[in-house]
């Protein structure tokens, strides 16, 4: 009788547990497929993290876009303006996302900083490649090109910060 109950429990968990939920948005399905969406991180917590990330990111992006635009306007090349943008923006986003978005209290801050610098460098390279392509090859306006580059790069940045930088031990 105990064996049949245990077998039924395993059967019920594997067969009746839905792998795909049509109510979830595509980003949540991506997190589920990557193993980032488990019973300890609820759907609401993930949504709150995404909203906080985008609110902090939006404020940071507006400030850094203004810095980028100002530096380009006064005659600094867009590549140097982009690097200055990422240095200032990286510091702001690290401290705000560590505290408010991911609520990370990890004591090994040097490891997080190294990972954050790696994510920022990867994002910078990705953003720079997109910016050069849009400005030099497609002949788009520099300001419009940076706007579109920011939108795409922010998705990459969220994913990398969530999965590589601010990882909690229970994930």
Tell me about this structure:
By secondary structure, the protein is mostly helical. It contains six helices and no strands. The protein has helices at 2-15, 26-33, 43-73, 78-101, 109-137, 142-165. Helix 4 packs antiparallel against helix 5 (109-137). The longest helix has 31 residues, at 43-73.
Written as H for each helix and E for each strand, in order along the chain, the element string is HHHHHH
Chain-averaged pLDDT: 77
Helix content: over 70%
Task: Name the overall outline.
Answer: elongated
Low-confidence runs (pLDDT<50, min 5 residues)? 1-8, 10-25
How many angstroms does the end-to-end distance come to?
Answer: 35 Å
SSE inventory with pairings:
Elements: H1 2-15, H2 26-33, H3 43-73, H4 78-101, H5 109-137, H6 142-165
Helix pairs in contact: 3-4, 3-6, 4-5, 5-6
What structural keywords apply?
mainly alpha, 6 helices
Task: Write a brief caption for the model.
This protein has 6 helices and no strands. With 171 residues, the protein is mainly alpha-helical.
């Amino acid at each position: 009788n105990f064996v049949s109950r245990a077998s039924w429990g395993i059967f019920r968990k594997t067969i009746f547990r839905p792998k795909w939920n049509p109510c979830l948005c595509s980003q949540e399905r991506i997190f589920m497929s990557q193993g980032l969406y488990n019973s300890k991180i609820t759907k609401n917590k993930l949504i709150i993290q995404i909203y906080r990330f985008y609110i902090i990111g939006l404020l940071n992006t507006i400030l850094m876009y203004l810095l980028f635009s100002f530096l380009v306007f006064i005659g600094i090349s867009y590549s140097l303006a982009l690097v200055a943008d990422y240095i200032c923006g990286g510091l702001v986003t690290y401290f705000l996302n560590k505290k408010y978005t991911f609520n990370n209290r990890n004591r090994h801050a040097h490891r997080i900083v190294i990972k954050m610098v790696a994510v920022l460098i990867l994002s910078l390279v990705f953003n720079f490649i997109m910016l050069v392509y849009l400005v030099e090859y497609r002949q788009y306006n520099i300001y419009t090109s940076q706007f579109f580059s920011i939108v795409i790069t922010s998705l990459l940045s969220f994913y990398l910060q969530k999965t590589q930088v601010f990882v909690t031990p229970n994930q």
